[in-house]
Queue: 3 jobs
Job 1
Amino acid sequence: MVYTILTFVFGITTLGFGYATFNLMRKHEQVEDWVVALQNRVSNVVTEMKDIDEKGLFEADDEVGSIFKQLSDITLTLESFTEEEENATQS
């Protein structure tokens, strides 16, 4: 009788842990996909910013240049952040 009860309890516990593990793995994969998409978007933004200002015309203008500089700094910060994330996931 005790053996049957213990087997039942351990079986239910094992099923619960299995479901929790599967659920956490699925959520982890979703977050990884989101990070990869973010990395791709940031790298595209950086590439487009460089393409737009390949001649340095925006940086030369005072008003537009200051805003462009701020945008450039933000994109470089995001790029360095995503590179750190990419290096961490590869390790």
Job 2
Amino acid sequence: MINIKAGALPCSTGMELPLLTKVPQAAHLLGLHISSLDRLIQRGEIIPIRKLRHRLIPRSEIERFLNSGGENQEKGGQK
């Protein structure tokens, strides 16, 4: 299980993540394909925020999902 402290999730450039991340970027950070992240959203395992026409993933949702061990659910943990 990956443990990440709140506010400490770095992005690939070494900077902290923004408070809201678009779905493709969130999928990349989680190591998932966009369709896998879409399934997690549909199942309610990750809750996006809807702004205008965009689905944005809060940094807190990414941290919560990683801290819950959720990365195994989409990568073969469920059948």
Job 3
Amino acid sequence: MTDNIQVIRFRSGYLPSYPDIKVVLPSPGKIKRIIEDFKPDLIHIHTPGLLGLYAVNAAERFGVPTIGTYHTLMAEQEMYVSFYRLFKLDKLFFKANKFKKKLNIEELDKIVKFDNFNIRKKIILKICNDIYNRCDVVISPSHLIKEQLIEYGITRPITVVSNGMDLKRFQGKPKEYLSGEAPKFLHVGRISYEKNCDIVINAFKLIHEQFPKATLTIIGEGPAIPSLQRQAEHLGIDQSVEFKGFIPNAVLHEVYPQYDVFLTASTMETQGLVVLEAIACGLPAVGVDAFALPELIRHGENGFIAKSFDAKGIAQGALEIIRNPSLYSKFSKQSIHIASGHEMEKCVDAMEEVYGKVIEAMKGKVKKTTIFDLFFDFMQ
């Protein structure tokens, strides 16, 4: 299979406010040449960024059917284009705070509120909608996100296909609660501001008051780690909160079973692959009522759902699970059952079926040439 796959890389830069986010450098001519040489039957984009835009432009020009998967709710990440993070004022704040103890977190909050204009979110949403509404079919990883995309203004046909999971590797066994007075909580993911890890830490503070031997492990990297470490220190729980950094996905299936309950407060998941990994390994989970999470964390079935940003609600759900061994066992079994519907092979078959239908339905797609195309033809 790999002999039939070619990976072509593009030069990119990084976003100053989040170096892990790569931004492809302008190269529409390269996309055009690739499509001319390869002559694809279908183009599938996975980003509303420049690379996705170039692909959609080229697909229209050559009359190639196009599918777009909506992996990320970009409008919910508008904080990364705010001036105070683009110019790294948040990092400057924390550096200054080491020397000037009078500075506090409320002063940074004032900067955030000053910069928090809703217009940014509307602009990002408009850009994303314009790209996806030029696709022939939009793929949503979950049914709840499909409803959200319709509300956002996506007018193209939307099909739900899970991103899938290798359940041969993430193959959990039903767990019993055996940690007694020292429950082990886990959070995994990109440690960025929109993931609301600060809410998880606030929830763990409430759990720690009831179970002083409890621990919270946070796995992942991202720009929010320094502020989260300071938060744990400020709350007096830094000795019970461990930041493990990045762990390769190749070994994560061995890590999840070492913990008791998975916690998340993210309000922007289109599916939540780390949640899927956790429940596939048999962990009960506690999350919030936002976007796709309630599809994987089903309230009263394999965990509990709290209101968004409700640290107390998350703590109460977690405490109820570890205080009730029979409930824990029930939730663990149900987590594995829910994850079973996302087997990778099933999802690949579903996607292949969508490909076939779109190619057949879009035969003879009309070619479009824009002023944008003519300009780049002239520049080459």
